[in-house]
Amino acid sequence: MSALLAAGTYRCRDVSQSVAAAVDVGVTWIDTAPNYASGSAEALLRPVLDGRSRVCVSTKVGFVPDSDRVAARDAGVLPLDSDQSHCLSRPYIAWQLTRSRVRLGRVPDLVFIHNPEHDRTDPADVARTLTAAFEELESAADADEIGGYGVATWAGLSSGGLFAVPELTSLAETVGGPRHHFRAVQFPVSLIHLTVVADALDGRGALAEARGAGLDVFASAPLGGGALLAAMADDLVRLIDRSASPAQAALLVALSAPGVSRVLLSASTPAHWADAQGAESREFLSPVRLRRVIDAVGT
Length: 299
Known about the structure:
Helix content is 46%, strand content 13%. It is of the alpha/beta class. Strands 1-2-3-4-5-6-7-8 form an 8-stranded parallel β-barrel, surrounded by 7 helices. The longest helix is centred in the middle third of the chain and has 20 residues, at 123-142. The chain is globular.
């Protein structure tokens, strides 16, 4: 199956406008988190999601929005004297899931554990944290409070990271049995993060492992937070696709990476989404073309 564009909300200046524009051009997946848009992203999505059952939504647990901290303390899921910005305890996850369902107005299709490596350097500590999180999310999935769960990371799955896809799938099987609800991973795939693409072409690394495990892969930051647009030289665009716009060329790399299911894009306007759809409708890059791009850019 070819990769598809999905609406990310991390860098949206106007979440409602961006996601409405995405849905209007046919985007059927929205990714968000409780801490996005200063804690307002989930609630801003509800009017867009209402009445649109074909549009799926994923959210996250982990980061503690400033706007939720007092309520979390009052609920007893954060220590009263704590200013922590990240929490993956079972009580906090359960509390956050309830708030997310209310804010979104529906059961989320996926819930990602958000950067479990945050402020952690000990693999054993990360393993304990993930075990507790998987246990809580399996319980929520069994109760039909979420559709499934995954892990969203910035660097945890990179070479030398604190965990790997086989470890995650093994943990899911230990916690949830053969019918576990671990469904997806999310990590950067772009011209800035080409090592994972090069590894996939050689049949190794996170993309290859996720595909082998039957997991969906959500590619984040395909435009490098916007930085790639200024760096897309004419010769690089021509190497990727001579008739593409700079944004389309950059997106094509992520869309073409083996094993990617969805590419998260925070586009602001209908014109930006129309341009992005131009990438989705093009012929994706072959492994040979991808290798040429990797050779030209480096990893």
